[in-house]
Amino acid sequence: MPTSIDQENSGTSHPANVLSSSQSTALEPTNQLHDSEGTNRDYDNQLDTLNALLERENRIKEGAERFLKLPLNETMRLQVESELEMATGEIESLTRKIELGASSSQFVLKQLIHNAPETSRGRRRKNGVPVNRRKFAGQAPPVGVRFRADSDDRDRDDFRTALAQANACIKSLSSLSRPITSPPPASSPSSTSSISAADNDRSRIDIMNRFVCILQRSLRVRYEVNLPEVVQAIIPALSDRCSMRCRAAAYRLVRHALVDSDSAEELHKQPLEWFIVKSLARDNKHAREREQVIKLIRTIVDIVSEPRDRRGVNGTKTIPLSEPIMRAFVAVAEHAEDPFRPICVQTLAEMILIDIDLVARSGGIRFLLHALGEGPVEAGPILAATFLHIIDSPRTRAYLHLGTDLEIALSAITDAYGKGADHADRMRSCTKIIQLMLRTWSGLMYFCLGDQHAIKSIVNTLRIPSLETREIVLDMFFDLFNIKAPQWYKTFIDGRRLTMYRKPRAFADQLADQKLPEKAPETLKLTDQYIALLVLVFADAGLIDALTAMLEECTTGSNLSRKATLLMAEVMHMANRVLPLGVAAKIQAVPRVFNLAADYNRGEHRIVGTSALSAIDSFNRNRLRLQPSVRNARPRANSAEDAVRRGQRQVEQVKIKMGMQMDDKTFQSSLLETQVMLTKDSAKWNFEMLQELIEGPLLNPKRLEEAIKVARFMRRLLSFFHPFTHRFSDLPKKQPNVRWVRLGCSLLTTLLASPDGIRFLASEDDLLKQIVKCFAQLDPFNGTSESDPMFSKYRLSETLTYGYFEMLGTLSKHAEGIELMEKFKFFTAFYHLSELRDREDLITAVITNLDYTIDGHPRIVLSKALTSSDVRTRLYATNHLGDLIRDSITPVAWTLRLLLTQIYDQAPEVCELAIQFLEDACDAMEVLQLVVEMQPTMDHLGEIGHPLLLKFMSTPMGFRYLYSAGYIDREMDMWFHDRNIYYVVEVEIFLSKVFSSEAAEDDEDVLAFDGVVPPHFYGEMSKTELGCQVLSEKGHFSEFSHFIKQHGLESEDLELILKLKSILWAVGNVGATEGGLPFLEEEEIIPAILEIAGHSLIPSVRGTCFFVLGLISSTSQGAEILDDYRWEATLSPLGVPTGLCIPLDLDKFISLPAWDPVGIKRDGDSRLIPPTSHTDLEVISAIENLSNTVIANAASRSLARMKSRPEYRSAFSSPSVFFRALHAISTQRYRLPVRRYIFDLFTAELDGELALELSACANSLRAPPMFKQSEAHINRVVSMFGLKHTRGASESDDEDDDMDDTVDEAVNDRNPVMITLRPVSRIIGFDK
To answer: For labelling alongside 507, which of 45, 981, 1005, 1094 has CA 20 to 30 A away?
Structure first.
C-alpha cells in the first residue's frame, strides 16, 4: 500500500537535512545576522546540495557492497573496491562538512560546498576510475552478508557514527518533551505560544524523519537502540496537542525501530495502548495518522509470522497486541465506509492464522464470519481460504460452532427465497465461495458433518419452484463437477433437435490430422478421483431427486428444466466414467424418473418422465458424435468420415488414370485451353485445367515429353516461375495467389517422375540456376551484393517469393531432386546462409521446408542450424526437430541423436526445450529404450533433467545405467530427506490451482501438470526388479512403514504432518506397481493407511490417504486387497483398474468427529470496582448502553444532556471515568462511529501525563478476584427497559448481529427480575 506519510515526510525534510536541537540552537545567532529572506533560502539550498551529495555517496557505497557479493572478474572487482573506498571517504568528508556548516558561518559553508565537487572529481581521476563507470544500484546489501576483512574497521566506524546519531536523536526528542501549557484564549501571547508549538512539531518531525533514515540505512542500529527509550521520547509527539503529521511520524519511527519478536514484545509493554486506540478511532481527516498505526500493527504481525525455527505447532505463536487495540482494529474493519477496511480485513485474516485465541477474545472471528457471508465480494475467497485452514486443525476448528458459524457462507444461496432478481449477483459470488470450499478436503468434510446438513441445504434450493435464480445453482454444479459446456449445449437447452447439426468438417479433419502419443491405458487423474467423490456425496444428498423435482414443475418443458435434464445426464455419464459399476448403477437407475414415465394414471407425470428419458437418450446418442474424446479417438473402418475419404481417394485415382489415357487430340486441346501458349498473363490462365494436366496426363512420360519438346508448353510454364522474370515472384502474398505455390510444387513433382523432366530441369531450364543466383545475392562469401535481393525480408513476408523454399522442399523429397540440388550447389548456399547474423528467417524457412527422409545433405543442414551461433535459430531448429520426432510413426535414431546433442547447448532455453521434447517422446516405450541405449550424460542438467532420468529408471537398462553412474544412490538419499516434501508441495499446489474458481485456463503451472500423478522416485524404482532389490537393501520402506504406524494419527505438529503426507505418497507410488505391492503386503501397511483415512483428525491427511489408496488400486492385486476392506476400485470396460477407488462406507470417510467449542479465556479478571459517585455511575451506564443498538439512541441523547449540565462536567474530565469508558470499549463491541463519539465526550486531552494516570487507574480500579457487586448497585444500573440485566458473554448472537451487552459475571439468582411491557419513566442522568 502506498505510504502517503512517507512521501510527505520525504518531501518535507531530506533524510540528512535534519539537525539536532543543539545544532539548531547553535545556528540561531547565525540566522539572526541575515536580514533578508533570500539569504536564508540560499543557505538552505546550499545545505540541500550537501545532503544530496551525501545521499548519493551512500547509495554508491551500499550498491558497491552488494555488488562485491556477486561473482566478478579481477578487473571488475578492483574497480568496485576502488569505488567503495572513495564513496566511504566522501561520506566521512561530507558528514564533517554538514556538521561544520551547522556551527560555522555561511561564508565557510559556501567555500566547502564550492570545493566539494572538485575534490570528489579530482580524487576519482587520481585513482584512475572515471565517474561514468558507476552503475551500481543504490540498494542495501542483504542481511547476513559478510564483508571483506579490510573494510571491517571502516564499517565499524560507520556503525558507531550511525549509533551516535541515533542516540543524539533520542536525546533531542527528549529535550523537546517539555509540556506546553495552553494559553488562555484571546490573549496576546497566544500567537507566540502557537508558533512555539508549531515549531516544536516541526522539530519533532524533522528529528524523527532523520532517525528513520538512520534506521533504514543501518540495520545494526535497530538492534542496538533501546526501544523503551525511543518510546518514551516519542510519547509527547503522540499527544492530542501535537499535529496529525507529528503523530504519524512518531508511529512511523516506532515501526522502523522494530526488528524481531523480542522488540515487538518489548513494545507491548510500553504505554502506547490508548494512543493507538484513539488514533484508530479518529475520522478520515487523520488518514495519514491512521495509516501509520495500521502499518505498525501489520509490521508486528509480519514479525511474529516469521518462522523462528522449522519445528513448531500450528497456532502456538502469540501476537503481542492487547485486546483494546484489537477491538479498535476490528471496529475499523467493521465500518463499511472506512477507506482502510480492506487492509484491516486482510490483516485480521492473517492474525487468525497466527493467534486465533487473540482474535476470538476481541470478537474478530464473529466479524470475519459475517464478512464471509455478507461482506465485500472481493474478500470472500481470502476469508474462505482462511477458515478452510482453520478447519484443517482440530485445535483451531474448536473455535467454530458447528452448524452455525461457517454455514453463513451458504446464506446467499440457502436464503435466496424472496430476495428477487437483484440478489443474483450476490448468489454468483456465493457460488464461487461454495466451489472453493467444496473443492478442498477441509470444506467438503466440514459440510458433510451433521448428516450432510449443509450439502442437503444447497441441493434443496433446487426444489423451490418460485426461485427464479435456480439457474445460478445449476451453473454452480456444472463448474463444481468440472463439466465443460460446448457450443451445442445451448442448442440442447433451447429445445432444438441435435440431429440437425452435423459435425463440422474442419473438426473432423483436425481429428484426422492429430497424432497423439500413445499413453498407458491406466491414465489416472487426481481431479477425476476427487470429482468422483463429489459426485458420490451429492448423489447421496439427493441431487438426482432434486433435479427430477425440477422436471415435474412443467410438463411442456423450459430452459431451466432442460438444463436440469442436461445436468442429470452429465452426472450419470460422469458416474459411469469415474465410479465403480455397482455404485454408478444406483445413480443411473433414476427410479423416480422411471416411475413418472410408467405412471399411466396421471398423464402429466408420464409426459415428464418420458420427455426426460428421451432427452437423456438423445443426449447420450449424440454425445460421441458431437463431442468425441480426442484422447481415445482412432480411425475406424466403418466410420462415416473414412467412407467419404475413401470415396474421394477413389475418384482422384480414377481421374488420374483417365487423364494418363488421354488421346492426342484431347491433350492438345487441353494444352490450348490452359491459355499458357497464348498469353503470358497468368490471370488469364485456366488454373483448374493446368492443375488437372499436371496431376494427370503429364504424369505419362509420353505426354510430358510432348509438352517439353513439341509444344514447348513446359518451357513457357516454367518461365512464369523464374525469379528474375518477376511474374511469380512479384505476386502479393494473398490467399488467392497461394494456389500458384502449390501448382509449382506439383509441377516439380511431375517433372521428377520421369527422366525427361529431370533432364529438362537440369539442363534446359533456368529455374534452379536463377534460384541459386538469388541465394548468391545474400552469400557473404560471394562478394557481390544487391540493393534489393530477391530473398529480402520484405519479399519473403509480402510476396510469393517464400514459395521457392516450398519448391526446394519438394525437390528434397526425391533422390533425383537431391541430386539436382547438389549439382546446383544449393546446400553450399544453405551452409553459407547459416552464417548470416540478421537473417534467421532464411535458415528457418530452409529447415522448415526440407524433407529429411533421405539421408544426406538435408540432415546436415538441420544439424548445422541446431548448432548455429544465433540462439533464435537454435531454438527454432530444436522446435522443428521435436515436431519431426512427434510426427514420426516409428522412432528414428538420427533425430533422437540430434535432439540429445541439444541438451548440451549453452543456452538454458534451448536445453529446456530439448528436455521437454525428450520427455514427450519417451512416453513411448520404443523411444525410451532407444534413448537409454544411447546413454546420454545428464548430470549437468540439474532440476530440469530429473523427470527424464526418472523415466530412464522405469526400464531395466536405464536403471542399470543410472545405478552404475551413481545417480540412484545419490538421488535416493535426497528423496528420502528432502524431495519427498517437495513432491507433496507440488501436488497440493497443483490441486489448489486447478480447483480454484479463478484459475486461468492457460496457467503455465496448471498446464504443465495435466492431472496425472507426477512420477515419483520410489515409484519408478519399483518398476524394475533391480530397483526393488535396491529399495529392499536400503531399508527405506521399512522406515516409511514404521513412521506411518507411529505418527499416522498426528494432529498437532505441522512438520510431522507434512512428513507423514510425503511418506504416504511415496508408499502409494510404490504400491502402484506390480513389483512394489509386495512391500506393502510384507509390512502390512494397507490397514494402517485405511485406519488413517477413517480416523485422522486432519482432513488433508485423509485426502492424501484417499489419493494413495487410488494409487494402490491401479493394479489388479491392489484392487482385490482393497475390496476386502470395502474400498471398491473403478474398472475400465475391459476390467483393467483405472486408478480410482471409492469407499463403500462413505460416512466413515468423510465425517469428522464432532467437537465442543472452546470457551474464550481471558488474561485475567477484567472487572472494575463500581463507581461511588452517582454521576459517574450514570455516565458509565449510559456509555455501556451505547453497545446495544436497540437502546443506543436513547443512551446517546442521555449523554448529550448530561454533558450540557454543569454537575456532570467533572465526570467528563475525570481520568477515572475516562478509564472506565476506555475499559468499556475495550471489553465490548462498539461500532466505530460510537467509539469516536465516546472519545469526543471527554474533554481530557490524551498525553503522556494522562496515560500515566490511566495506568494508575487500571491498578486502583481493578476489582479483586473474589469481588461481588452488591444488589443495590445492580439495581441502580438501569436502562430504558428498566433494570440492567447481565450477560455471560461480551458478544450477542441476535439477528441484528450488532448488539453486544456488557460483561457482568455477578448474576443474582436469588432475586430474579421480572420483565414487563410497562415502560419505565426514569431516564439515566435526568431523574429528579
So the answer is: 1005
